[in-house]
Amino acid sequence: MSFPAQLYSYPEKALLKEKILVEGALAALDAIGAEHGNFHVEMILDQGKRPVIVEINPRMVGANGFFFVSEMYPGYNLIEQGLRAVAGLPVIPPGTQKYAALVSRKILPTPGHGGRIESIRGAAAAEKMPGIVSFKLTKQEGGSIMSLEDGFGDDIYGYVLAAGKDYAEAKANALAAMGSIELTVQKPVGLSVTQRGDWGHEPNDE
Questions:
Q1: Backbone dihedral region for residue 38 (phi beyond 0: left; psi -120 to 50: alpha; all else: beta)
Q2: What is the pLDDT of residues 104-150, one digit of tens each?
Q3: Is pLDDT of 9 > 50?
Q4: Rounded to an integer, what distance in angstroms lies between the CA atom of residue 72 and that of residue 191?
Q5: Strands 144-145 and 40-45
Q6: pLDDT for 23-50, tens place per residue?
Q7: Are 76 and 69 in contact, with CB atoms under 8 Å apart?
């Protein structure tokens, strides 16, 4: 099983949430008889703060997860550790982390506003803002994007990876960079709609 991600310099509430989710994932894997290997478990917390299983897949984390780990632990080979897990060998934990805290956020389209991308403004400056490790756009002007609901949150403008001395600072750096860009989309009906890159991300979310 892939080792659980560790949260460093996170608020106590976030650490408690992580503990609940990790324990829920382990219980789910025990329930299906999974003993070793790689598993991707997606969950949500219900209103009573209880973990609810969304899906379990026999695979490692997605591409952004690999990038996140490689930035936090330079030289650490997550694929090698995944193969060790499949072979039933001990998984070697990562060494010294590069950053005190690292936050990854997606740049999301807004609901109902899919279409042709007219302009993306401010991306070059956002890349140079404090704490930004990576600011990657996956869309270009002239291309198309689906609305949030049509793309199920997977068709995105890009993502940002930001570091800080703690979780709060890393998140603030990410949101500042995202909030500095503007994206304009022309809908099929001809109406143009502009949004900021930090849409859908609240400063106090977790």
A1: beta
A2: 899 999 999 999 999 999 999 999 999 999 999 999 999 999 999 99
A3: no
A4: 42
A5: unpaired
A6: 888 899 999 998 777 888 888 888 888 8
A7: yes
| Other CB atoms within 10 Å distance of the CB of residue 105 | 21
Per-residue model confidence as pLDDT tens digits over 164-206? 998 889 999 999 999 999 999 999 888 999 999 999 887 755 5
CB 134 within 8 A of CB 160: yes
- At residue 40, the pLDDT reads 87
Contact criterion met (CB below 8 Å) for 184 and 124:
no
Token pair of 58 as six digits: 């026999």
DSSP, res 90: P
First vs last C-alpha separation in the chain: 25
Long-range contacts formed by 92-98: CB under 8 A, 24+ apart? 93/3, 94/69, 97/8, 97/72, 97/73, 98/71, 98/72, 98/73, 98/74
What are the E-state strand segments in 34-114? Answer: 40-45, 51-57, 101-107
Is beta strand 51-57 parallel, antiparallel or unpaired with respect to 40-45? antiparallel
Model confidence at 15, pLDDT cuts 50, 70, 90, reads low
> Would you call 162 exposed, middle or buried from its count of C-beta atoms within 10 A (0-12, 13-18, 19+)?
buried
Residue 58 vs residues 42, 82, 85, 86, 200: alpha-carbon distances, Å: 12, 11, 12, 10, 30
